[in-house]
User: Fold these one by one.
Assistant:
Number 1:
Amino acid sequence: MSTTDLAYFTATQFAGLTTSVINSLTATQVGVLTVAEVGALSAAQVAALTVANVAGLTVTTQLPALKSSQIAAMTTAQVGALTAAEVGALTTAQLAGFTASQLGTLSAAQFASLTSTDLGALSAAQVAGLNTTDLAALDTATQLTGFKATEIAALSGTQAKALTSAAIGALTTVQIGGLSAAAFSALTTTQVGALTTAQIGVLSKTQIGGLTTTEIGYLTTTQVAGLSTTGIAGLSVAQITAVSTADISALTSVQGNAFTSVQINSMTTAQSNALFTVVHS
């Protein structure tokens, strides 16, 4: 079949080609496909395209013709063949077609081509598929800002641990509010050290409860002073043991009064004395 023959095919006729024929098309033949023909490809036909032909789709005409359902039909090998420019050219509607598995195969270069708008349009299920290498390379200025709290909530402990301390510290108070207790417990002490007082101040009881005693002990006096009364009340007996007397002494009387009787009963004499001073200051 010549390129001339293909040029005379209607979209309906082209849609009738078998997957074997589609798979046998040369780069030159695929290059002459019209927007209508590309848009008419069935899921099976899309999956039958060779990796080279997928990579050869024109960014300005053919790629924009793909529907989200066609993108979802791509194999991981085909997705991997897309250039960074092609991935970056996809619309948010097209990106919605990517499965979690497909997104998980994106290379560093492909992932870097996604904008904050692109990333902000991903579903929670898609975010759960992002690989740790790509998450570790998140640009705090051009990508991280796009994530919604619901997307942050979809991150597993392993994924959260992959974020750089700079990324953790750059999360807005709304975004940090989405991080799960499981994700908090997986953070490294370096990441915990990057938390700002503003971020710590909005943490829920559940999130505070997710911090390990090691993480609690690593918090600076300034960070502990940023805890809200809700956060303080959420500290477990085990966590209380990791709070230093210096940390307690840095609290305000309002914060001091937030400790429950159960928490106070678990304190050491030194901690109790520090708290007494704070409450009566």
Note: Residues 69 and 146 are 24 Å apart (CA to CA).
Number 2:
Amino acid sequence: MKSRIRETLARAAIMAATTMGVAAAAAGGAHATTLPLQDASITATYNGSAAMLGFDNGYSVSAGGNTTKLDPDAITAEFLSADAVFGFDFGADGSLSIYNNSGFAVAPGDYRFRFDFTSLASPITSFKLLDASAVGGLPLFSILDGGRALGVDLSALTWSGDFLPVTASIEAAQAGAVPEPGTMSVLLAGVGAIALVRRRKPRA
């Protein structure tokens, strides 16, 4: 478990510069506004339970361990699922990278996540796909509770054993804007590709 966490931290750092650069380019054409997830605190659940390990608690199983603030250095994942299969890396700029942390191929299954945000300056209103070419199938993202929570359903996805993430940009309402009521679901199809070669260590 500890080796997987260390591997996730190192790999997330590699991807951080790429993800942040793409998100910054996308934001260049938008109106200046507070960063979508700036100063956010996030509480995560996995299939309806608190089986998520947060950055603030050192990815340990503990009471309240499924709540964390954003990594202030923006170099590592905010959450690992308790089964160590998935990692979630949020950025203040609204970037989201979802990793297969297991090191093995992952078949479709029951993988439903919810992220509740506090201290958001504005409600979340939409997603923009950055890259989903690493997976087969369609991830489902839902905006919940008037833009204060996100649902992420990875159940239909097929993952390879490579550490290539699904990435998206989370966007918030501009000042004075009112989000659409109810839940809005966005199906993300894979487009483009990020060329990333990972050298695996041989298994003992």
Note: The CA atoms of residues 173 and 191 lie 25 Å apart.
Number 3:
Amino acid sequence: MKYPEILPIEDVLARLDDFDTIIDARSPSEYALDHLPNAINCPVLDDQQRITVGTMYKQVGAFEAKKVGAAMVSKNIGYHIETLWLDKPREWKPLIYCWRGGNRSGSMATVLAKIGWPVVQLDGGYKAFRGAINTQLEQTPELDFRVICGTTGSGQNPFARYAGSDRRPGAGPGTVGGASRLGAGQYPLPAAAFAEKPSRPLSGTVCAATIRACRCLSKPRVARLGACACRDALMERMRAFAVHLDAGSARRPRQAADRGLPAFRLQRPCPECTARVPGVQLHGRERIERWQSMANAGEMPALVDELLVDHYDPAYLKSIHRNFVQFDKATELALPRYFA
């Protein structure tokens, strides 16, 4: 076999777990936007060097820019070899890619192959990976989702944690309403996945990671995973099957106070409690004053019960029926007593 071996994205994705190291040769800013799963960033040109070479290419000429760029690339590759790979055995098999699988990854792949390592270079680079991810996300995933639905205080969070844990026989992985538990194990997500506004490419990678990790128990309120938007095919699949969770009217106020209304856990007067309820001003002066009187008197269980029935439930049920057209046929599941 002649190295570096150049493989298309289809072959690389099928063998992704076979590589000892996945090396992203792009600049740090490109890497931060998104990258292949488990890839490490070993730039052959950093951000400033890339600007310098690009500016010279336009203002001076390609030949002069390539000379300066080649000197930078050589120094950077030498630094990576000296600091990261001197201890690697002959059998060490890295995968290298850049933006389009051109000069940057080719330079590093050539040097490592000349040393004697069985190097693989991704043909088409990150751009090919992005195209493959977009294609994958447009397809309906063959996963058996069961979406937990319920109003405030129905116990969705404790139930989802239990169903996705090892405390029950045959337990499988679960997600609890966000990206915090996605991508565990063989397909970890970059830290930027948990940012308030992740990049659009990273959003797609997060969804692909979720599908690959086979997270089959979910609790979506909107078409997002954490801060990352889901594709239509995935959401349609998830919304086809629903489980209606019911904690029972006697336990709902306690569940709601523990999870979403911490101020109402206090069994004493709380003059400011009602003002903390989002959207409470929509109910009119008379009702708000009555609720505030209950808060002032410390009648918290009765107040929470009224807030659930008259304030939270209508909004949640409207959203559930809008997003889950088959909700009336959903499987009903009573929350076990030990969750209360």
Note: Residues 166-197, 213-222 have pLDDT under 50 and may be disordered.
Number 4:
Amino acid sequence: MWVHPQTAQESANPCASAFDLLRLSGTDTTSWPYRRRRTALESVFAARLLSAPWVLCPSTTDPDTVREWLTWASVGMEGVLFKRLDSVYEPAVRGWRKYKVRETAEAIVGAITDPVAAPSGLLLGRFNDDGRLQYTGRTTTLARAASSTVAGLLAPARRGHPWTGWSFSAGWGSRETLNVTLVEPELVVEVGVDVARDASGRWRHPARLHRARPDLSPANVPRGWRRQEEEPHTALTSRGRAACGAGGSRGRPHGRGAWSPRPWRLGGRSQRLRAGDFPSRTRAQS
């Protein structure tokens, strides 16, 4: 399961989402096929009447249910993970496949990496409700043609840039900082992003530049940046939310398997879940 320490401390109702069972009543279940492990996990929840804060991660083999889950991005659902039902648990082996929901968004270029004449990456921002330009993420490395196009649309920063004195992380969870050059926050770009956000509402993964939008002004960019004051329960999730057929191109499943939604995961650490980790009895609270 994944538990983000900050969220667990701040939330008044933390939860633990279970997706797999590796040991049951002293028996090592890692050699069991996932189908059998999932059945055993469901039996543990039923036999012990487990309720909040324990949550059984949803799972399905129905493609129509998966399509419905993929429409839940507005409530923080990143996508789905899937695995073959006949697969055994293999430590340190990535047996789960991922399909992430992506969307198109506009953002303002506030800084770049490398010189203005040949930027290799863009640092992006959006205005908050107070009209302040807040950092919301960065792009992947630009292709040479895209770099050349963007360079011709950038202007060096004037005095009073809103990001003066700021430092920027080289990546989510990294302590390394980027060496950036501030530019005048005038250029709007269209990017492709997944729906994962960090605790401050920034894009957790680098955005992919689609195109520059010199036809738009910064005022046209939605004020989509906000700090998440209280994360939903889905911020505390399992690492492998289900089982399913082996993935094909772009993570599309094929073969027999089960899906599970991939809720908005803020990070944290992975732990093996065993039956002994559950309380002996949990009653539903009215």
Note: The two ends are 26 Å apart (CA to CA).
